[in-house]
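2024-03-11 09:14:02 INFO queue: dequeued item SHSP domain-containing protein, len=110
2024-03-11 09:14:02 INFO validating residues
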Amino acid sequence: MSRVTKELSSYRSCNIRADWLEDDDSHSFIIDLPGITGKDVKLEIIDGVTLEISGQFPPETHCNLKWHVKERPTGAFRRTFLLPQNVLASKLRAFEVDGMLVVKIPKKKS
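2024-03-11 09:14:37 INFO prediction written
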């Protein structure tokens, strides 16, 4: 079992919605992370080819109530993206906008 497979098995499978956009200058990732601030998220570039986004959604505080619908995620999460070769991974920038994490990675100049 690979390191990544072994580590992923310890994380809950949360449906983290993400968009990946590309323009002439960069790749942008927009990830929905409601209820989480930037300090609760870890960004890592693994071996220069994989963007890994991980963190922890806060635990549910209404445990003594009867649930009818439970759609908001709780617990640990991890999402990975295999990056193309034309990125400058060391120049990664991230910022928060309205409950979303935006990660921009510039492209290498041709």
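2024-03-11 09:14:37 INFO annotate: The longest strand covers residues 50-57.
2024-03-11 09:14:38 INFO item closed
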